[in-house]
Amino acid sequence: MYPLLARRSHLAAYLLLWLLMGALLSALLTTQGGLAWTLALLTGVPSAIAYSFICLSAWYVARAMPLARTGPARVIVSALAAAALSSAMWLVFARGWTALVVSRWAAQSGPTFAAIQSMLFGIGVLLYLLSLAVSYVLVVYETSQDAQRRGLQGQVLAREAELRSLRAQIDPHFLFNSLNSISALTTADPPGARRMCLLLGEFLRETLALGSEDRITVSRELALLDRFLAIERVRFGDRLRAELRAGDAGGCFVPPLLLQPIVENAVTHGIAHLIEGGTIRVSADRNGPWLRIVVENPCDPDRPRRGGAGVGLANVRARLRAMHGADAGLTAGEAHEVWRVELTLPAASGEAS
What we know:
The protein is built from eleven helices and seven strands. By secondary structure, it is an alpha+beta fold.
């Protein structure tokens, strides 16, 4: 659609400019054609408004012959031909309209229109060429906006693909560890292995329901963590304890299963190496526009160290970076036999979104 027709305000401004052109045309009919001002206005203003709609065709000429793909000679010839044809059409309309007005409301006859028709034709050509130049500017702007829009869409699609890829890494890694645990329990604790299979099935059923969701609330994320920890308690029993607190951040949104790899690391590399076990603490707090989530677990300073960052923290960092860029961050470190992971990200909530 022609941009001027997309909004009423644009069309009103466009017609206002042509009303001024109609006033100038009326002045010509008065000074050069000998018409009284009343008759000149009745003639000039409708003629100018009519030509304003004829000049809208310049938009389609500009779209049909983009400057980037059309030779200069063809553009110039086509522009002059379209301007001459449009001006001739305007001249025919203006002459007929002037004759009608004069014959109906004035007794005079003679060279009322003939005195200015050559000048009017030249003005019509210039106005059409001006409309064509404006149309080319609008076409270039529209093309630039479309390219920018496609670029942004491409970035969004790439980010979504990256997020899906990162999220797809979680389940195989978790399943690998869980199946190893079930295998170990089948001989030492068959009822425990069966119970772990049932809990694992419930947990996977819950995570499958998240397939179409990009974000879930912190409260729901902590509920998923509670299900995950129930699976791990089959192995560790009372050695594994947990404190999950959403605080005032329960309604904030996070990517699904964002915390599960962190808590899994807390179990595997923290609680598993402590004879007396320990408590994993997960707390979420909202501070203005920011959401802060802290995961803490006791750890044995003499435990065997694993080289590399592994899948867990690297995956969480990548997901935060893909979703929030530099606005989100993750820090991790050990102090006083406590391993602490802190996440900071924008506090998007249901009300904000």
